[in-house]
Design brief:
The chain is of the alpha+beta class and 104 residues long. The protein contains 4 helices and 3 strands; from the N terminus they run αββαααβ.
């Protein structure tokens, strides 16, 4: 997932973040199992999304912070300073099911 460090992102930044999030969720949706139910005309789709985050990803500057040169030098040092406790590597996941009506 993509997040902004700006507490009040400009509309264009918000749109970039929103589109990035939608793209990421669509990647997961394409891999998600779908279960059709012919009796009631629905399809249930189970989504499972995971994300791992580090202090490097939380504090990277725009553009340059995504380049390998940054990630392998400054970013690595940032992560080394936050190996445990607050700011250390964390993982999160969420799961949900959507039930969609099939076209008749």
């Amino acid at each position: 997932m993509v997040v902004s460090v700006n507490p009040e992102p400009h509309k264009s930044e918000f749109n970039v973040l929103l589109n990035s999030t939608i793209d990421e969720l669509n990647k997961h949706a394409k891999k998600s199992p779908a279960t059709p139910n012919a009796e009631n005309g629905t399809i249930s789709v189970n989504f499972s999304v995971g994300n791992t985050s580090t202090m490097q990803s939380a504090s990277r500057p725009p553009v340059i912070g995504y380049l390998p040169g940054w990630q392998n030098t400054v970013g690595r040092r940032i992560n080394e300073a936050f190996q445990t406790g607050w700011g250390s590597k964390t993982s999160q996941s969420f799961n949900w099911t959507e039930t969609l009506q099939m076209r008749r």
